[in-house]
């Protein structure tokens, strides 16, 4: 197999797919157009296709000539509720929606990888399951797992990748163990008693209580959790009040608790304890809710070694980022929670092409040369895993 040559032949098609997805972004569980294109493409490659998994998700199954293990390759399809600010011929055609995280590239890369691998199915021992996931931004993977994506046939290992603008194009980031944080989203409502801004003594001010909570919970990661166990508590949304002279009855706060270590439950318990006691001290009442965003993504050492070895072949040992760990979440963790798996990053940052903006930024874009690296990694890692069976 002259893989690089096969990818080069399909380069125009790869970029065309990515730009089409970019121009037509769809939010989580609304990826109807995208999944329709994916379904048609996979069927034209001769794959068995299962649709409507977790609403708009789907999977293509490639059965090799000989029986063997099954490996899962995953791409996410959803966009974000962001107004694009890029001046591109293929910029988002939909107001307030944008592929600002690279999922358009993920979908295109996995489709091309599926086409290449389907062309070599007689050389494959085992099965490859190509999973196109909806709603990664709000943990759609768990629903796919709950609906049996890891069965029929049973998946023995999982592999996923992410285009990453904070790594230079031509580089790959991979590390064993905890690599992306767990995330728990909280909503806190603090209730007091409204009153006049000039007579706060006659009211019960929920705003000053909230300010105390925001400050005090920061001591959790600095005074209650070991400093070598990364923990981040962030308040990102605060709503209250209607006038500069009226103390409101309540204040609402939302944010997240992220841990890159085992112990997220302990952080939530500490957060709850501080909220309860501060609210008591300020004579307010409260309601606190938690929602799991993502469990921690933990790379299997063996699968990490496999990916690292292939990455060295693809980009060279000196182009590997081996210490990458992030406090952002990734629901691929659901796919490798109970089976060995590895998740890694394909660098797409290029100052000359203006592709170094942070993910979720309205000017986010990718260097399309990185797409070829992602396709090659998909194909080589899948074949290597099945060959080792």
Quick overview of this protein structure:
By secondary structure, this protein is of the alpha/beta class. The chain has 10 helices and 16 strands.
Write the layout of secondary structure elements.
Blueprint: H1 3-9, H2 11-23, H3 32-44, E1 48-53, E2 57-63, E3 66-76, H4 103-118, E4 125-133, H5 140-146, E5 157-168, E6 172-173, E7 177-180, E8 182-191, E9 195-196, H6 206-216, H7 219-224, E10 231-240, E11 246-247, E12 250-259, H8 264-281, E13 285-294, E14 297-299, H9 301-315, E15 320-321, E16 341-349, H10 369-387
Parallel strand pairs: 3-4, 3-5, 5-16, 6-15
Antiparallel strand pairs: 1-2, 2-4, 6-16, 7-14, 8-12, 8-13, 9-11, 10-12
Helix pairs in contact: 1-10, 2-4, 4-10, 6-8, 9-10
Protein architecture, described:
- 32% of the residues lie in helices and 28% in strands.
- The model has no long low-confidence stretch (mean pLDDT 97).
- It has 2 domains: 3-178 and 297-387, Aminopeptidase; 182-294, 2-Layer Sandwich (Alpha-Beta Plaits), CATH 3.30.70.360.
- It is built from 10 helices and 16 strands.
- A hairpin with a 3-residue loop joins strand 1 (48-53) and strand 2.
- The protein has 389 residues and is of the alpha/beta class.
- 49% of the residues are buried.
What CATH first level of the largest domain would be assigned?
Alpha Beta
Range of helix content: 25-40%
Instruction: Give the C-alpha Rg.
Output: 23 Å
Q: Tell me which CATH architecture of the largest domain applies here.
A: 3-Layer(aba) Sandwich
CATH topology of the largest domain: Aminopeptidase
Largest sheet: 8 strands, mixed
